[in-house]
TrEMBL record:
Reactions catalysed: adenosine(1518)/adenosine(1519) in 16S rRNA + 4 S-adenosyl-L-methionine = N(6)-dimethyladenosine(1518)/N(6)-dimethyladenosine(1519) in 16S rRNA + 4 S-adenosyl-L-homocysteine + 4 H(+)
Source organism phylogeny: Bacteria, Pseudomonadati, Pseudomonadota, Betaproteobacteria, Burkholderiales
Protein name: Ribosomal RNA small subunit methyltransferase A
Keyword annotations from UniProtKB, A to Z: Cytoplasm, Methyltransferase, RNA-binding, rRNA processing, S-adenosyl-L-methionine, Transferase
DNA repair in keyword set: no
UniProt cross-references to SUPFAM superfamilies, sorted A to Z: S-adenosyl-L-methionine-dependent methyltransferases
Family under the similarity heading: Belongs to the class I-like SAM-binding methyltransferase superfamily. rRNA adenine N(6)-methyltransferase family. RsmA subfamily.
Gene3D superfamilies with a match to the protein in the record: Ribosomal RNA adenine dimethylase-like, domain 2, Vaccinia Virus protein VP39
A GO cellular-component term linked to this record: cytosol
Main location: cytoplasm
Domain of life: Bacteria
C-alpha cells in the first residue's frame, strides 16, 4: 500500500533522482563515515547513502515508515531510531557525525537550534530546507534576510547554500522552493562569547525590534554599553551588526552583569 503523506509531520517526499544524486555527491560519504539521516521517509536518500556506506543511522518519527525501513534493510546496515529528532540525544550516536536530511519545514528552525548543542561532535550537516530559511541562514549583515537565525548559526558554523530544489521534485509538492545547505562547524579557535546564554539573549532582544536603533531596542541595557569601545555606533540597528560585533556587545553586557537569561542553545 502506498504511504499517504501526513501533514502533521510535514511530509513531502523527494522523488527526483537527479536531486537525490546531487545531494549524495555533495555529501560524498566514505564507507566508514558515521552518517545520520533525519527523516528518511520513503528512502529516497537512504538507499543511495547505503550504497556508499557500511551502515547508516536514521531518525524517523512516523511509525509506519520506521516499520517499512526495518523490514526493508537488515539491522546491521540500518539502525532505525523511531522518534522525534527534536528529542534525540545525538551525542549517543558516536562521531564525528555527518548529518543529512530533508527536514520538515514546520520544525526546521527548532531542529537547527537543537543540533547546535551537538556541533562539537559533528563533521558536517547537509540539509534540504525551505529556501527562505536557507537564505536567512546564510544572509550577511545589511541584507533583508539577516536576523537572529543568521547570527546564532553563523557564530557556530560556516554555511554554504548549494542549490535550489523546485516543488515538482517532491510528492506531494510543497508550495515553496527548497534549497540544500552545507553546514560545517567552526573550529575551537573561533571567536566565541564569554557566555553563550548572554549572547543568545542579546541577539534575541536585538532582533525583537529589528527596525529600531539598538540604543532603543536594548532598553535599560543600552547605557551599560561602551559603544565606542566595541566599535558599534549607538545609532546602529541589529541588522547591520556582524557576528563579531554581537559577540563584543554580549561580552560588554555580561561584564556589566546586565543579563541573566535562562539556559540558551549551545554555540
Amino acid at each position: 500500500m502506498a504511504h499517504q503523506a501526513r501533514k502533521r509531520f510535514g511530509q513531502h517526499f523527494l522523488v527526483d533522482e537527479a536531486v537525490t544524486d546531487a545531494i549524495v555527491r555533495a555529501v560524498a560519504p566514505a564507507r566508514d563515515d558515521a552518517v545520520v539521516e533525519i527523516g528518511p521517509g520513503l528512502s529516497a536518500l537512504t538507499a543511495p547513502l547505503l550504497q556508499a556506506l557500511d551502515c547508516l543511522t536514521v531518525v524517523e518519527i512516523d511509525r509506519d515508515l520506521a516499520a517499512r525501513l526495518r523490514s526493508r534493510y537488515p539491522s546491521e546496515r540500518l539502525q532505525v531510531i523511531e522518534g522525534d529528532a527534536l528529542k534525540v540525544d545525538f551525542s549517543a550516536l558516536g562521531g564525528p557525525l555527518r548529518i543529512v536530511g530533508n527536514l520538515p519545514y514546520n520544525i526546521s528552525s527548532p531542529l537547527l537550534f537543537h543540533l547546535l548543542s551537538y556541533a562539537d561532535r559533528v563533521l558536517d550537516q547537509h540539509f534540504m530546507l525551505q529556501r527562505e530559511v536557507v537564505d536567512r541562514m546564510v544572509a550577511e549583515p545589511g541584507q533583508g534576510d539577516y536576523g537572529r537565525l543568521s547570527v546564532m548559526l553563523q557564530a557556530r558554523y560556516r554555511m554554504d547554500k548549494l542549490f535550489d530544489v523546485q516543488p515538482e521534485s517532491f510528492d506531494p509538492p510543497p508550495r515553496v522552493v527548497s534549497a540544500v545547505v552545507r553546514m560545517r562547524p567552526l573550529p575551537a579557535s573561533r571567536p566565541r562569547p564569554r557566555s553563550k546564554q548572554v549572547f543568545a539573549q542579546v541577539v534575541l532582544r536585538a532582533f525583537a525590534q529589528r527596525r529600531k536603533m539598538l540604543r532603543r531596542g536594548l532598553g535599560h541595557w543600552a547605557p551599560l554599553v561602551d559603544w565606542d569601545a566595541i566599535g558599534v555606533a549607538p545609532t546602529a540597528r541589529a541588522e547591520t551588526l556582524s557576528v563579531a560585533q554581537f559577540i563584543a556587545l554580549s561580552d560588554a553586557l555580561q561584564e556589566a552583569g546586565a543579563v541573566a537569561p535562562p539556559k540558551a542553545p549551545e554555540i
